[in-house]
Design brief:
binds magnesium ion; 8-stranded parallel beta barrel; binds phosphoenolpyruvate; Enzyme I, Chain A, domain 2; alpha/beta; globular; TIM Barrel; Glucose Oxidase, domain 1; 4 domains
Length: about 575
C-alpha cells in the first residue's frame, strides 16, 4: 500500500509493449565513488600491473557477456559488445592512464576514472547522437574496469527482488542485457529514443519499456510502486490501492506479459468457427526470446526487417555476418517460412549522420529498393547472404518500397546474376526461391495487376500505404487521429491488390500494424488476405478472436465495409461486428 505518497503519471515514448506492475529501483549508472590513494614510488610498478590485470579481466568479462548475449538474442545483438571490446583495448588511452599513474602517483581506478571523465566531456556536448551514445559505452567500460580493480565483476550481480522496475537516465544495450539477466520486469528512462540500441534490444527481449519520460529518474524514487504501460507510454507512480487493483484485474487479464502470452499461444494456425484455417505469422526486427517460443507453435516469419541489423551496427553488416543471422533464423523457424525483407533504409530509418538521413523530404526520398539498387555491391552481398541461407527451402525474399515494375526487373536481374555466381562456387541455395514485393506505395497498389504478373507474392505494408495515400506522416504525433489504415481510400487499395493477385494466383500477405488490430482482422480475412503477419505480441489475441468468428460472416462484413463511404462508417461497421461476436 502507498500511504502518503503522491500519485502522478509520467508520459514517455512507448518503446516495447506490455504492462508491468512493480517496485522502482532508480539506478544512477555512472555514480562511481572512486577512492583516491597516493602511492609510494615503489608501488607504482605493481599498480600498473594491477591495471593490466584488470583490463585483461574486463576483456574476458565483455567476451563472456558477448557470448551470453549471442546465446540469448543471437549473433548480431552480441556484436554490440564489439564497441566495448574496442574501447577497453584502446592502447593509446591505456598509455595515458599509465603515464598518469606514474606522474601523479595515484591509484589505477582513480587515474582511469579521471581520464575517462575528461575524455567524454566533448562527446557529451556533441550534436551527433552516435557520439552521445558512445559516452554510455565508454562509461559502461569504465565501470567494469573499476569493478575489476575493486575485485568484483558486474556479471556476478544477482537477481533483483521480484517485480523490480528499473528507472534510469538512460541505458546502454549492454546494461539492458545485464539487467534482463537480473530479472528486471520493465524499464523506464528519462532520455533516449525508440531507435537507440537499447530500445532495439529491449524490444527484442520483449520487456515493457518506456523511453524519454522527462526526468523520470529524478522524479521517481526507489521503492515507489509503479505501473508501466509499454503500449501507451504511461507510467503511473504510487497509484492508490483501488487503482492498482482495478488495473491489475482489468488489464492484466487482457495484457499479460507478452512472453507469457506467447508461451500460451492457442493452436496454430487458428481456425474460424466454421473451421477455416487462417494463416498468421510474426514480424521480427532482431533475434530475441520470441525465437525460442514461436517455432514451437509452428509460427513462421512474415516479415524480417533486416534494416535493424544496420541500425544496430551503425554500418552495413558483411555478407558473412548476414549469412550467420539469416541462416540462424531460417534454421530456427524451419520448416515454417521466413520472409526476409531486404534493407529498407531511409526516411526515419537511418543511423546518426549517415547518407540516409540527409534529405529534405526523407519519406519521399532515397529509400527502400531505390537506395538498394543504387548500391549494387551492398545489395548483392545481402542477396548472396539470403540465398545462401535459403538452402533449407523455407526462405523468401521481400523487396521494400517498390514503386514501379522497372525496379522489380532490376532487382530480379541482380538476383539472377547472383545465383549464377553462387552456382559457379558450388554453393547450395534454393533456385526456386519466392520473390515478393511490399505494396506500400499507392503507385504499386494501383499497378498491382502489372506487378502481380512478375512476382511470387505481395505483402501489403499498411503503415506506409496509409501514410502515402492519405498524405499523413505516420510518425507525427499531431496527426495521430488522421493516420488510419482503415480509411476507405486505403481499403480500396487493399482490394485492388487482392483482385490483381487473384488474377495471377499469387498470395497476398499483409504485414503493417493493421494485421494485429482486433477490429480490422475480420475485415482483412473477409477481404481474402492470404496471411496476416503481425508483432508477435498480437498473435495471442488474434488467435482468440479468429476462433470466435465465422469465415462466412467475415466475408459479408468485407462486402459491407467496401461499400462504406466514410471512415466513420467503416469504423462503426467493424465495431458492430466486433460487438456481435
Ligand atoms: C509497412 O510500411 O506497413 C511495413 C510493414 O513496413 P515498415 O513498418 O517497416 O515501414
Ligand atoms: Mg514500410
Amino acid at each position: 500500500m502507498t500511504i502518503g505518497k503522491k500519485t502522478y503519471t509520467l508520459k514517455g515514448i512507448p518503446t516495447s509493449p506490455g504492462l508491468a506492475f512493480g517496485t522502482t529501483r532508480v539506478v544512477y549508472s555512472w555514480e562511481q565513488s572512486v577512492g583516491e590513494r597516493v602511492l609510494d614510488r615503489a608501488q607504482v610498478a605493481s599498480e600498473i600491473i594491477r591495471l593490466d590485470e584488470a583490463i585483461n579481466e574486463t576483456l574476458l568479462e565483455i567476451n563472456r557477456l558477448k557470448k551470453m548475449a549471442g546465446e540469448k538474442v543471437g549473433g548480431p545483438a552480441a556484436r554490440i559488445f564489439d564497441t566495448q571490446l574496442m574501447i577497453v583495448s584502446d592502447q593509446a588511452f591505456l598509455k595515458k592512464v599509465k603515464d598518469q599513474i606514474r606522474s601523479s602517483r595515484r591509484n589505477a581506478e582513480f587515474a582511469y576514472s579521471m581520464l575517462v571523465e575528461k575524455s567524454v566531456i566533448p562527446l557529451k556536448k556533441s550534436k551527433d547522437v552516435y557520439m552521445r551514445q558512445m559516452v554510455y559505452e565508454i562509461e559502461a567500460v569504465s565501470k567494469k574496469v573499476v569493478n575489476q580493480l575493486r575485485g568484483h565483476s558486474e556479471i556476478r550481480d544477482g537477481a533483483y527482488p521480484p517485480d523490480t522496475i528499473v528507472v534510469a537516465q538512460n541505458f546502454t544495450a549492454a546494461e539492458i542485457l545485464n539487467l534482463y539477466d537480473r530479472k528486471v520486469r520493465a524499464f523506464v528512462t528519462s532520455e533516449g529514443s525508440s531507435t537507440s540500441h537499447m530500445a532495439l534490444v529491449a524490444r527484442s527481449l520483449l520487456i515493457p519499456t518506456i523511453v524519454a519520460a522527462p526526468n523520470a529518474h529524478l522524479r521517481v524514487k526507489t521503492g515507489d510502486r509503479i505501473i508501466v504501460d509499454g503500449d501507451t507510454g504511461e507510467v503511473t507512480v504510487n497509484p492508490p490501492d483501488d487503482v492498482w487493483n482495478e488495473l491489475l484485474k482489468k488489464k492484466a487479464s487482457l495484457k499479460a506479459l507478452p512472453l507469457t502470452k506467447l508461451k500460451k499461444l492457442p493452436d496454430f494456425p487458428p481456425r474460424t468457427k466454421d473451421n477455416v484455417k487462417i494463416y498468421l505469422a510474426a514480424n521480427i526486427n532482431l533475434p530475441g526470446p520470441a525465437d525460442r517460443i514461436l517455432p514451437k507453435h509452428n509460427v513462421g516469419i512474415g516479415l524480417y526487417r533486416t534494416e535493424f541489423l544496420y541500425l544496430q551496427k551503425g554500418s552495413f553488416p558483411t555478407e558473412e555476418e548476414q549469412f550467420e543471422l539469416y541462416d540462424y533464423v531460417a534454421g530456427t523457424y524451419s520448416p515454417q517460412s521466413v520472409v526476409i525483407r531486404t534493407f529498407d533504409l531511409g526516411s526515419d530509418k537511418y543511423y546518426k549522420n549517415d547518407r540516409f538521413g540527409q534529405e529534405k523530404n526523407p519519406a519521399l526520398g532515397w529509400r527502400g529498393i531505390r537506395s538498394a539498387l543504387d548500391m549494387p555491391k551492398l545489395f548483392r552481398s545481402q542477396i548472396r547472404a539470403i540465398l545462401r541461407a535459403s538452402h533449407r527451402g523455407n526462405v523468401k525474399i521481400l523487396l521494400p518500397m517498390v514503386t514501379d515494375i522497372s525496379e522489380v526487373r532490376k532487382a530480379a536481374n541482380l538476383i539472377k546474376r547472383t545465383m549464377v555466381g553462387l552456382r559457379k562456387e558450388h554453393c547450395k541455395f534454393d533456385s526456386h526461391i519466392k520473390i515478393g514485393i511490399m505494396i506500400e506505395v499507392p503507385s504499386a497498389a494501383l499497378n498491382s495487376d502489372q506487378l502481380a504478373e512478375k512476382v511470387d507474392f505481395f505483402s501489403i505494408g499498411s503503415n506506409d500505404l496509409t501514410q502515402y495515400t492519405l498524405a499523413v506522416d505516420r510518425d507525427n504525433r499531431k496527426l495521430l487521429k488522421a493516420f488510419n489504415p482503415m480509411h476507405p481510400a486505403v481499403i480500396k487499395l487493399y482490394k485492388f491488390c487482392i483482385d490483381a493477385a487473384r488474377q495471377y494466383s499469387i498470395p497476398v500477405n499483409i504485414c503493417g500494424e493493421i494485421s494485429g488490430d482486433i477490429l480490422a482482422i475480420p475485415l482483412l480475412i473477409g477481404m481474402g488476405m492470404t496471411l496476416l503477419s503481425m508483432n508477435p505480441t498480437k498473435l495471442h489475441n488474434a488467435c482468440n478472436l479468429i476462433s470466435r468468428i465465422r469465415y462466412e460472416d467475415a466475408r459479408d462484413l468485407a462486402d459491407n465495409v467496401l461499400r462504406a463511404k466514410t471512415l466513420k462508417e467503416v469504423e462503426s461497421k467493424l465495431l458492430e461486428f466486433n460487438m456481435s461476436i
